[in-house]
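Contributing: when you submit paired examples, paste them exactly as shown. First protein:
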Amino acid sequence: MKEKQCHDDTFSRIRHIQETLQSFVYNPNGATYDVNKKRPLSELLDTGKLIGSHPTKPIQCVEGAFVALHMSQQYTGIHRFSLSFQSLDEASVVRHHLVLGVYGGDKYGAFGISRCPALMNKPMQFDTLADLLADFKQSYEGVGHKVQMITIGRPVAHDTTAEQVVWNYLRVSASDWAVVTKHAASFHDRLVRDSPQLWDTPIIPAAEEPQPRVSRSLAQKQPDRRCVSMGSAPADPSVPQ
């Protein structure tokens, strides 16, 4: 009974954060705030707090991740980690999108914002990380995108004095879903064992990391930036423009 109450409290807190993100309007014209992810965690949390204090200002996916980090920082019973998706749309244009994966109460879900509702928040109902990733893959296919690469970040520390967030801990090609499932299971094993030493060793050796196959013409046309479309104004790449 006590464990169930604990899980219910966790899910309630997560839903509150998701509802807060849903209350924001998506910004089709580019980022409003500093979206440099290489800053110290404390600065990202400060940016998230600033964004949260101006709920009427539109935001994009990275800004949404900062808000979620800030709002969940005190909830030490949940694990947060970035999920980045590289996809190819119907016009063969490479797109990038970022959400924040979350694990708590033995379930997985996600925090995020997007112009496409299916590519933002995910309820805490997935038994495995692979199930959550498969749901995102299906959602992408529903808007005419093919997921090429998935990048998972290292769990974000609840210690505000921690340095930078590791956004690219595990990078895997989506071409072989059995491989995605295998590495997602390895990530989960490290997550539940919660041993800092485990995270110092990569799940996939650097020499074996998959490289996206993008034609020279596409690489020249499309800059590799998060949440940026091919147009002159940054926009959410999660749906065809």
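Second protein:
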Amino acid sequence: MNALLLLVPMALLLGVMALLLFLWTLRSRQYDDLDGAAARILFDDDPVRRPPGRTQIATHDKPRGTP
């Protein structure tokens, strides 16, 4: 019974803190653009430009173990 006198106020305090944090996230507009981050991965970035005259060496044409 003595444990309930400690646990009930702690549970209520934790619930009030969670509610206050949730209200803070609403006021700071954390939930305004939920789809933006999900769709951002689908947009292409600018292609990487390589300097002219440099070519990439293909090393996968030779089988390993042959000199």
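If you have annotations for the second protein, write them as plain sentences, like these:
The radius of gyration is 29 Å.
Helices lie at 2-27, 36-40.
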